[in-house]
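About this split. The held-out portion is used to measure sequence recovery: a designer receives only the structure tokens and must propose an amino acid at every position. Recovery is the fraction of positions where the proposal matches the reference. Here is one held-out target exactly as it appears in the evaluation file.
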């Protein structure tokens, strides 16, 4: 009797919550916890990679796949998962993703014990498959999280909601490295993965209770077909493209495998476009790209993350090798990067609802470009305050740009396309992450090799201030930042000609 009464009371409270005018913030809280868990994990795992590499006795080329296995899987599956969520419903897809992400994190952290039990010589041969399946779970959540937040906020508050979601991402960017450093130092690298289990359990419980299934239903009966060939082609296209880029620097850009990879990519993407135009129920509705607002938004999101990721990848090497900062000191230098996003993301999102997105997307890209341009002038004797200034300007621009751009993209899509739209937004960001690292590595490595040096990181790290090898490394880094600055400026021009109008005018 008491159990039945308690269940009835919970049901009544949930119905009241579902009908509340503040329900959108309950959804935001549930989804935000999942997003925070994901970002903290990605921020902390990079801290653990050197320790894992030493314990497993593997090279840098091998250990990178602990990260790439998940990142490539996410990028390849975002579009199919977005379409599936539009068909079967966003809530069940999200919950399944949380379970898969958490369980595979448990297995990844336990891979040495599992390998020992199974008689495997190298635990990493188990960890990488676990990381692939963890990427599947992450793709399920990323393809749906932003879509669900967007759907519960009205048009007039969409920028506010996405801005608040952006602040969650920024907060995770601060917490992740701190948590990672603490766990690796005072516990073990295994806890980098194991800590996701209780976090995912809380996320599952919160989303299961707070998400109203009636608001996140799938498509109608007539729209339930799934484009399996399109899903296969899109995943294959992205995998070939990203694998080719990530291996270009190591194998040589004009080597037979890399050239063949690019040719296969061209063939696959051509086939994919042809099939999606022909299909009666395409996985990716290419008509979305008829909207200039949508196309510019997706393209500039990709370019923005090219700049952000190349900065994140190279700046730690520069700060250690050139300015001789310790990892702990570097974490403090990078904190303004996350704080700028936390503050400016919600602010620009809220203001863009009132004044339109054009001003904020254009200004954000211009500021990000200016910050990257300042970085192109850094040397081995540059003041740390100059570096911090450049970081603050770049990160402020990125923070101003993100939320209004996402709001503009979603404003050009109908509600039944929010799943695939959310997937495309996250795809542009994940692809930008992988591509940014590949481009940065290729330019810096190419610069060093052309000067007669190897691209061995250890040689750069131990080089003396003013040495030719360090100067060459910095020259390559400056070329990367200059290229990324130019791309930000070009992208800003696109936003001058198209952006969402102020909601007061619509």
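Reference sequence for scoring:
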């Amino acid at each position: 009797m008491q159990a039945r009464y308690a269940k009835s009371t919970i049901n009544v409270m949930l119905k009241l919550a579902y009908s509340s005018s503040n329900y959108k913030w309950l959804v935001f809280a549930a989804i935000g916890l999942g997003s925070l868990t994901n970002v903290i994990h990605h921020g902390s795992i990079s801290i653990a990679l050197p320790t894992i590499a030493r314990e497993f006795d593997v090279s840098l080329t091998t250990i990178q796949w602990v990260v790439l296995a998940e990142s490539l899987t996410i990028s390849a599956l975002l579009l199919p998962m977005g379409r599936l969520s539009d068909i079967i419903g966003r809530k069940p897809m999200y919950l399944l993703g949380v379970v898969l992400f958490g369980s595979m994190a448990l297995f990844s952290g336990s891979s040495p014990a599992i390998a020992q039990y199974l008689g495997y010589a190298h635990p990493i041969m188990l960890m990488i498959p676990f990381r692939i399946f963890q990427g599947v779970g992450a793709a399920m959540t990323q393809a749906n999280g932003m879509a669900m937040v967007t759907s519960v906020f009205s048009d007039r508050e969409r920028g506010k909601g996405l801005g608040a979601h952006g602040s969650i991402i920024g907060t995770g960017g601060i917490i992740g490295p701190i948590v990672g450093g603490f766990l690796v130092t005072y516990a073990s690298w295994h806890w980098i993965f194991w800590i996701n289990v209780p976090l995912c359990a809380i996320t599952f419980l919160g989303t299961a209770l707070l998400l109203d299934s009636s608001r996140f239903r799938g498509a109608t009966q007539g729209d339930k077909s799934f484009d399996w060939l399109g899903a296969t082609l899109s995943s294959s296209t992205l995998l070939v493209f990203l694998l080719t880029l990530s291996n270009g620097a190591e194998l040589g850009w004009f080597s037979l495998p890399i050239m063949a990879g690019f040719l296969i990519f061209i063939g696959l993407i051509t086939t994919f476009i042809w099939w999606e135009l022909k299909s009666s129920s395409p996985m990716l509705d290419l008509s979305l790209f008829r909207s200039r607002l949508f196309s510019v938004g997706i393209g500039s999101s990709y370019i923005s993350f090219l700049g952000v990721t190349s900065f994140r990848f190279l700046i730690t090497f520069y700060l250690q090798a050139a300015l001789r900062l310790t990892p702990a000191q570097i974490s403090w230098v990078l904190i303004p990067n996350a704080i700028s996003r936390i503050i400016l993301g919600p602010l620009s999102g809220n203001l863009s609802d009132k004044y339109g997105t054009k001003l904020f997307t254009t200004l954000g890209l211009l500021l990000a470009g200016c910050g990257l341009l300042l970085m192109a002038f850094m040397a081995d004797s540059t003041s740390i305050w100059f570096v911090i200034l450049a970081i603050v300007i770049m990160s402020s621009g990125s923070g101003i740009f993100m939320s209004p751009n996402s709001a503009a993209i979603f404003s050009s899509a109908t509600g039944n396309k929010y799943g695939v739209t959310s997937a495309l937004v996250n795809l542009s960001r994940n692809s930008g992450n992988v591509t940014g690292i590949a481009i940065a590595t290729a330019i810096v490595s190419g610069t060093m090799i052309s000067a007669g040096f190897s691209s061995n990181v250890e040689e750069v790290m131990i080089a003396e201030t003013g040495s030719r090898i360090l100067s060459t490394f910095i020259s390559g880094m400056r070329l990367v930042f200059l290229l990324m600055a130019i791309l930000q400026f070009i992208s800003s021009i696109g936003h001058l000609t198209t952006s969402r109008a102020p909601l007061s005018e619509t």
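Annotator remark: The chain has two domains: 1-226, 284-506.
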